[in-house]
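Researcher: Please generate the 3D structure of the following complex. Treat every line as part of one assembly.
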Amino acid sequence: MPLNRITWRDRLRRDRSLLLMTLPAVGLLVVFAYVPMLGNVIAWQDYSPYVGITNSPFVGWDNFVRVFNNPQFLHAVGNTLLITGFQLVFFFPIPIVLALLLNSVVTPTIRTTIQSIIYLPHFFSWVLVVTIFQQIFGGAGLVNRLLAQGGFSGFDLMTNPDTFLLLITSQAVWKDAGWGIIIFLAALATVDPAHYEASAMDGAGRWRRMWHITLPAIRPVIILLLILRLGDALTVGFEQLILQRGAVGAGVAEVIDTYVYYQGVVNGDWAFAAAAGLVKGLVSLALVLGANKLAHVFGEDGVYRKS
Amino acid sequence: MSIQTDVGQGPLSRPDAVPVPAPERAARRDPAPRRRRVSRHRNAWEGRPSPLGQGVKALVLTIVVLIVLVPLYTVVLTSFSTTADVNRSGGMVLIPGDLTIAAYAQILSGGIVTRAAGVSVVVTTVGTILSTVVSVLAAYGLSRPGSLLHRPILFVFLITMFFGAGMIPTYLLVSNLGLIDNLWALILPGAVSAFNVLILRSFFMGIDPAITEAARIDGAGDWRILGRIMMPMSTAVTAVVALFYGVGYFNAFFNAMLYINDNTLWPLQLVLRSYVLQGVTLPGSGTGQVDVATGAVTGLPVKMAIMVLALIPILLVYPFVQRHFTKGVIFGAVKG
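Model: Done. Output below.
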């Protein structure tokens, strides 16, 4: 490759249209992603919006000390982890089971029809999903009316803190379980039928074939998604939760993101909220990188690898 | 750095559900074998499933489909129902009675819902076009191996995937730029998604270099190669990326909640949240309260009509892009 022998100037002339093409996107990222990253300096300031970042005095680590001594913040962290953990156990397996089920449907027409239907809710906004749930399960909703007609006493699932975890998980399942199967179905499609044939010859039944061939085949994908989910552990359905925080109260619906929003934008404690948000961002980053490291340890490709 | 497992190869290198030609079909010389593809050939070793197993499977899948469809059905039906029918059923309508479009006439007769629908359409259209164009350009710009600075620039994109700046500094920036109560605040902050750029980039990189080389020898520059060769070959992926952007713009409510205070500039999702979910009565809204004299539909049908309004664009685009999902999504999500 003569690449190395071309001078920098020649490469610039050759690639100038490529550089020009990336310019708009890079510009947008610099302004709306990198400048705010620098804006995080207010976490070390006694920030006042009236004097701005340039004139606000620096106060060292005070804001971070306040964040870590704040029981509400710690409560929000606890809630965040609880919700993620709960969804990991009760949401995560559902797409896998659905994909296995759908994969065993032999008629292509039926299979693709069902697929198109269960992908659909993924594209609805959280406002829409929460509203639909309210119309079905709310105090004046469909289920309650039907129960009342049958002579049963009603309940209001939407405002009950005790069942909130269940509620948001079922909303997540309704919205995204169908979408989650795409990747598993793709993995299943790559399994070589010869494996099945060979094992069938050796006398393996339907379930043994699933256990020893199908599941190992999708294992890398399962691990990959599990890791991605772990890396994302501190970001649980922000829009979903902020929509319903009012109805069930902050006790169960406050997560780190909603806490940052209320402290910063609503209460105007900008520096404190920025510090809390920064802590979350850094911990999330560490989780992603750590989870990926873990994947490498287990011999999987993980989210990325150097290429 | 690329998201990579070997599963991504499958659906692309091999078309979905390759039918194994049944021998008897070949013997009969079936005139339209492609259209007659009713059932996948079942291998002998698979055996016939038990009727019980089949029944359970069918039942479970039917229930899954109904769980998705019934809520949508009752929302749509209620939006077309009269107040009388709504009262008779005591809420959401499950059995159709008299159908009417009064609720739609009411919300679309001007007022806040009409304006919100307009705002949503404008933001979604402008945003999707801007994001898609910018992303396609960037993806191609980064996809040529050995080009100047492509690694550091790629790094600039990748960092944004792993570390977000945070809500507070972003809010302060948007506010300092004077974008509060400006619709650009709904578009610009999220206009470029590194993830989508990587989807497109990996697709461009997967196109046989012989094709682009031939074009280059014929004198085509990068702009022409992108426009005449890459774009036509990647419509499926581009459509999926555009859909992701479009759905993002159309569904976003939190940005609007943060940046838009003036309710005449509210997008549909914010109206949906305030009027339908929280039950706030909007001023001067054409979502008017009970009007017995004119027999206008009130309450629930109007709320459901607003919901349907928020559903329609997705239902309209969905059938066209839907068939590209598996291809586009798998390619991006897995190979990134």
